[in-house]
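We close this part of the discussion by returning to an individual protein. Part of our work consisted of pairing the sequence of a single chain with a tokenised description of its backbone. What the numbers capture is local backbone geometry rather than side-chain detail. The amino acid sequence and the backbone structure tokens for this protein are reproduced below.
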Amino acid sequence: MGLILLLTFGFMTLMGVLAWWYAAHYDGLVGTTRALTIISVIGLIGSGVYVAKNGLTSHHAASTTTSKQASLNSSQYFAKKQSQEAADKKQAQNEQYVLKKLQEAYKDKVGTVSFDQATKTYTVTPTVASFKTAIGKIWKYPTQNSKSIKQLEQSYLKMSASIDKALGDGYTLQLTKTSDGPVIIKAKAGKVTVSGLNN
């Protein structure tokens, strides 16, 4: 705003001076051109004072722009935060849905399934008597039961892949010997990371 005023009154003053000079030398309207020149000079001085106080651009305009930018950044931050919270909530719901499906899949022939959200780990614990007996024998005689161990590993790898497909990477599916451990099979990221039966 200040720059516009300076340019406007500067141009008017220059034109007034030229017109005044022309009128004085060629019998023109000296009084009129003098009056207009004086008004332009006063306007130019006023513009200079305005610029001295407020700068070439309006402080208010700059403040308004800064305020709008801050408001926009704040809105974007909260929108992003809300979006992340919604995504986290949806993921938690999906994790519980997978837990429910695993519990349904294992309850009759294997046992219980729990989920630790902090470590992204689904743990299968044998509670069905026949499976507990089978696991006990496999644990005690791993060499004689290598085929059963391989089938068990492949089964957990397949289930682990299904979990990753439903929830994304980073989840672990493990089978423990008892509720207190130790871990027999731990499947994650497409491979068996721990197989206690082979130790």
Summary: The chain has two domains: 2-57, 91-198. The chain is about 65% helix and 15% strand. The CA atoms of residues 142 and 197 lie 6 Å apart.
